[in-house]
TrEMBL record:
Gene Ontology MF term list: iron ion binding; oxidoreductase activity
SUPFAM superfamilies per record: CO dehydrogenase molybdoprotein N-domain-like, Molybdenum cofactor-binding domain
InterPro entries the record matches: Ald_Oxase/Xan_DH_a/b (IPR000674), Ald_Oxase/Xan_DH_a/b_sf (IPR036856), Ald_Oxase/xanthine_DH-like (IPR016208), AldOxase/xan_DH_MoCoBD1 (IPR008274), AldOxase/xan_DH_MoCoBD2 (IPR046867), AldOxase/xan_DH_Mopterin-bd_sf (IPR037165)
Originating species: Siccirubricoccus deserti
Domain of life of the native organism: Bacteria
KW Transmembrane (keyword) present: no
Entry keywords, A to Z: Molybdenum, Oxidoreductase
UniProt keyword Oxidoreductase present: yes
Name assigned to this protein: Xanthine dehydrogenase family protein molybdopterin-binding subunit
Length: 754
């Protein structure tokens, strides 16, 4: 076995369980004698329920109960908005009163002995409404706007210098509007919930990125002690932000189970997932960029307006990133929220950067054209040692190294910069590039590691594997620190009864959890070392100098004691360590927040003392048909610098998936909205377009070595959300290069290019 496990590429330790069907996803959990829930959702977007006619529904054989606001009012307490110190992804409380806030809001939950009976009765429930014309979003007369700085406590629009004066004075400038659409999650595993009461304890099986958050949120809603709530989510069949915070369905299922005195299982339909969970908000952005004749940036203005619901100030606010991306002395940004009669948006993979870096990286390309300068060279001239807003030094910034390695591998030097200059038959060829960045987030985390006398280790932490490979990289960290082969390490995740770990969001899990596991393993090593220096071959050595390597406790000169002997010297049986990791610079209350299931990620690029981020350069080739304007993407290449890579295989897989998602972001994905009714139209995976195999090209991922211990002791930066940032801009830039047409609105469709 290798001396080090970190940096190796073992296959996923849960891979076999997944491909053989042995992995039990929360939706698969079988409970005894369940009642089945089926949701009835609102047919209008704004107004009131005037009548509910239940008789026909209740007459369906097997129907047990129908929950509506008439028998539920006052039952579920407010869990608060997650961004305001609460737990919920949205504060709209269904079944609380007769008010309708958005299309597809839950208006009833039907419970029956079978799924079929519940569904039948749901279809027979008659709900009458008094409807008011809703605001669907941009262009709706009754939508209202509010500056994010007013709506969200703590939000500041980054700015420095005098961007407007510098823009006016600069010799070369561009100014443009960009638009990004609503996008919806379509996880294979639906937004299911199963709840059962075991004595006084509520057990919830639900695919989740934050079991501790759900535990505390539901406890708040139901007035329970959090110890009475257990949330399990050992595997997640697709999440990407959609399962990151509490939605309102969970408490309803828990209450139904309590009222019926039996387990309840809810399997919402796919279209219901569009309105009972969150989505990526659409944006409209305005960008002004100015430079001197050498391409040195003089001014950046970036303004964005984003759709949210009426009550909740969800913000995308990617200007936090775009303001800091390049060296620029004069920056002004502003984020405005547009309140409409919609469900509350939320996280979707790289929530701020996907829409906002599209605009910035398109604008940088437009400026390069105006300057007649290579777009990579333009970025080089504006590379920075410090982010420009507060002057925080980058802990490391691999951006230009990524461009160099990526350009070389892609063959960028063979690009003729002239638009429409590269062609093969009827296909116009375009090469484009764009930067990616994802701030390095990290959170307070806890873990328990147990080493048993037979040399087996068990890691327990309430972190999550949302398909990313977390089980594997956490096992690698423990194996490395304990000097054990990977197969001797078991990892338990996804259970709120385990020591708390942060939300699987903001790409923090690998960094946060590997560091706390390393800490716990360090405690075990120290205990073994203290005993080993008392007697035996390592007697008299400095305990701090002893390392656990390849199944033994070893001194620098090779003198060693085998692990079983070291274990029996230190303990009668197992050795267990419980560790708490509070990342450097994070306030102490972050640990208490973790224990109460609050959102408390730190790090990033705006707080300091260091600006911490992973970077990358993405290159794409597009082919645009000269007559039909069909766009194809034959190849994509991404070069990334993301700190220490724990497992290059799973890292590559994350980045590859991100790049392919980026193709969808550029060319396919959009939730179509019926503006008159504020209703999602293509709320299914047939009409909600995503890249299929035929759209997924040759994807090349390059992982650059990067040592950065400023981010955390293990030098790990997250990369789960790095790959799909900037890809949309790289494709738009390539489309411009192929056609001479600038597409500033996503997705780019044939009609955008005719
Ligand atoms: Mo990710 S959108 O931070 O779950």
């Amino acid at each position: 076995m290798p001396d080090t496990m970190i940096g190796q590429s073992p296959i996923r330790i849960d891979g076999r369980a997944k491909v053989t069907g042995a992995a039990r996803y929360p939706s698969d959990v079988v409970v005894p004698n369940p009642a089945w829930a089926f949701l009835v959702t609102s047919a209008i977007a704004l107004g009131r329920i005037t009548a509910i006619e239940e008789a026909e529904a209740r007459a369906v054989p097997g129907v047990l109960e129908i929950l509506t606001h008439r028998n539920m009012r006052g039952t579920v307490r407010d869990a608060g908005f997650f961004a305001a110190g609460g737990y919920a992804a949205e504060t709209i409380r269904p079944l609380e009163d007769d008010r309708i806030w958005h299309d597809g809001q839950i208006v009833a939950m039907v419970l029956a002995d079978s799924f079929e009976a519940a569904r039948e009765a749901a279809f027979r429930l008659r709900v009458d409404y008094a409807a008011v014309t809703p605001a669907a979003g941009f262009g709706s007369a009754s939508a209202t706007t509010e500056p994010a700085a007013k709506a969200r406590q703590g939000h500041e629009d980054p700015q420095v210098g005098d961007a407007d004066a510098a823009f006016a004075a600069a010799p070369v400038k561009i100014e443009a509007d960009y638009a990004t659409p609503t996008q919806h999650h379509n996880p294979i595993e639906l937004f299911t919930t199963t709840a059962l009461w075991e004595g006084g304890k509520l057990v919830i099986h639900e695919p989740s990125q934050y079991v501790t958050g759900i535990r505390h949120g539901v406890a708040t809603q139901l007035g329970l002690d959090p110890q009475q709530v257990r949330v399990e989510s050992h595997y997640v069949g697709g999440a990407f932000g959609s399962k990151g915070s509490l939605t309102q369905r969970t408490a309803l299922v828990a209450i139904a189970a309590r009222r019926l005195g039996r387990p309840v299982k809810l399997v919402p339909t796919r279209d219901q997932g569009f309105t009972i969970a969150t989505y990526r908000a659409e944006t409209r952005q305005h960008v002004k960029l100015a430079a001197d004749r050498d391409g040195k940036l003089q001014a950046l203005v970036h303004e964005g307006t984003e759709v949210t619901s009426r009550p909740d100030p969800y913000k995308v606010a990617g200007t936090q990133t775009t303001a800091r991306m390049y060296d620029c002395p004069n920056v002004r940004t502003k984020v405005t929220l547009l309140h409409a009669d919609r469900n509350t948006p939320g996280f979707m993979r790289s929530p701020p950067e996907v829409p906002y870096m599209f605009a910035l990286e398109s604008a940088v390309d437009e400026l390069a054209v105006a300057l007649k300068l290579d777009p990579i060279e333009l970025r080089r001239r504006n590379d920075s040692k410090k982010e420009p807003i507060k002057g925080l030094p980058w802990s490391s910034r691999g951006l230009m190294r990524c461009y160099e390695a990526g350009a070389e591998a892609f063959g960028w030097s063979r690009r003729n910069p002239e638009p429409r200059s590269m062609r093969e038959g009827d296909w116009l060829i375009g090469w484009g590039c764009a930067s990616t960045i994802y701030p390095t987030h990290i959170g307070a985390a806890t873990a328990r590691v147990t080493l048993t006398p037979d040399g087996q280790a068990r890691v327990q932490t309430a972190a999550h594997d949302i398909g990313t490979g977390a089980y594997t990289v956490i096992a690698q960290a423990a194996a490395e620190m304990l000097g054990l082969p990977l197969e001797k390490v078991q990892v338990a995740l996804g259970d709120s009864d385990l020591p708390p770990a942060p939300v699987a969001g903001g790409s923090n899990t690998t960094a946060s959890v590997c560091n706390v596991v390393a800490e716990a393993c360090g405690q075990i090593r120290a205990r073994l070392a203290r005993a080993a220096v008392e007697d035996g071959p390592l007697k008299g050595r400095d305990p701090a100098s002893l390392k656990l390597v390849s199944g033994e406790l070893r001194a620098a000169d090779g003198t060693a004691e085998a692990l079983p002997e070291a274990m029996s010297r230190a303990a009668n049986g197992a050795i267990e360590a419980y560790a708490e990791y509070l990342p450097q610079g994070m306030p102490k209350e972050s640990m208490r927040k973790l224990y109460s299931g609050k959102q408390a990620l730190g790090g990033g690029i705006a707080e300091g003392p260091l600006a911490m981020a992973a970077f990358g350069a993405e290159f794409v080739e597009v082919r645009v048909h000269a007559r039909t304007a069909e766009v194809r993407v034959p190849r994509v290449l991404g070069a990334f610098a993301a700190g220490r890579i724990v497992n290059p295989r799973t890292a590559r897989s994350q980045l590859m998936g991100g790049l392919i998602w980026g193709i969808g972001s550029a060319l396919h994905e959009e939730t179509e909205i019926d503006h008159g009714r504020a209703r999602y139209v293509n709320d299914n995976i047939l009409e909600y377009l995503i890249p299929v195999n035929a759209d997924a090209p040759k994807v090349e991922v390059m992982l650059l070595e990067e040592t950065d211990t400023g981010v955390n002791p293990l030098g790990i930066k997250g990369l789960g959300e790095l790959g799909n940032v900037g890809t949309n801009a790289a494709i738009a830039n390539a489309v411009f290069h192929a056609t001479g047409r600038r597409a500033r609105e996503l997705p780019i469709r044939i009609e955008s290019l005719l």
